[in-house]
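Most newcomers find our protein records easier to grasp once they have seen one. Read left to right, the backbone structure tokens trace the chain's path through space. Nothing more is needed to start thinking about how sequence determines fold. An example says more than a description, so a record of this kind follows:
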Amino acid sequence: MEVNQSVHNAPAGYWGIAFQSRESTTSLCAYDASFAVGLVHAAAHVVIDGRVVALIAYDLPYLEPLCHVRPIISSFATALVLTHEKTERAIACLEIRRGEGGKCISPVGMDPGLEELAHGVPAARSLPLLLALASGNPMTVDVEELPEHRLVIQVSPC
């Protein structure tokens, strides 16, 4: 049996029902820039509202006819919890700014398979940031946002 969600905010709604959460959610889509736009949106809420924000990004291969417009080569999901203040569970501090032009630079060690995944699945554009977080080392990474823009993220261990 194939299940097809008719709206992209259905998973957030189901999560809210399952956990009886009355917290607000935002579901957004920005084509291939969805992860970057979501990160900026989440970071803005952290900075402006001082709230803890869960950023969840995922993609699944589309069904017909959308799969011909934007093929998604694999399923992929990631989640980050962003806070304004450092906590005992924090693994890194992020400084996010916008960059212009040029090709995004992958962190050292991004193998060709991960590069292919990052270009074939919009949510996997998070991989440079995830690799930097996993390394535990200070690192600057680029995350593709819009054709003329990218996010430059300075990752510093806490």
About this structure: The mean pLDDT is 87.
